[in-house]
Specification:
The chain has helices spanning 61-71, 86-104, 115-121; strands at residues 24-25, 35-40, 47-52. The protein starts with 23 loop residues before the first strand and ends in an 18-residue tail after the last helix. A three-stranded antiparallel beta sheet has the order 1-2-3, with helices on one face. The longest helix is centred in the C-terminal third of the chain and has 19 residues, at 86-104. By secondary structure, the protein is of the alpha+beta class.
Length: 139
């Protein structure tokens, strides 16, 4: 889990400058009871708190830190570095598109639609020209 609405800014102790890209803080200010760390991905002032809630792959904390850092650099929509992993951005964009599509349908939630009806409403658009601008990448 990455906290999107919260960030912490760390500075170098002597120089007062911002920390370098890729800096990980996993002790001192993190909970000793949980697997969590702060990651500075590259954008100025963007140290995000990452908390590992469930790990079915049995990764070490170092492997989680490295994976999270690399996923911040996998943005195919632009060449800039994200301050949180790209899959989090894509899931957020998908949620916003699905939400706006559902709101546009004026569904009566007193008698909610069946799962099949919802799937039909939210069926992915196959024509890129019909996609909302927020979901389209470079052409």
């Amino acid at each position: 889990m990455c906290s999107r609405n919260h960030h912490q800014e760390f500075t170098k102790p002597v120089e007062g400058e911002r920390i370098d890209c890729g800096t990980i803080v996993d002790s001192g200010v993190t909970s000793p009871d949980q697997m969590e760390f702060y990651l500075h991905s590259g954008n100025p002032g963007s140290c995000r708190l990452y908390t590992i809630l469930f790990d079915d792959n049995n990764l070490t904390i170092d492997e989680w830190e490295m994976l999270s850092f690399y996923l911040c650099h996998c943005n195919h929509r632009s060449s800039r570095v994200l301050d949180f992993p790209a899959p989090l951005l894509y899931s957020s964009l998908s949620f916003k598109a699905a939400r706006s599509k559902l709101l546009a349908c004026n569904i009566d939630w007193e008698t909610p639609p069946s799962i099949d009806e919802l799937v039909e409403i939210l069926e992915p658009v196959t024509n890129r020209d019909d996609c909302p601008a927020i979901m389209t990448g470079p052409r």
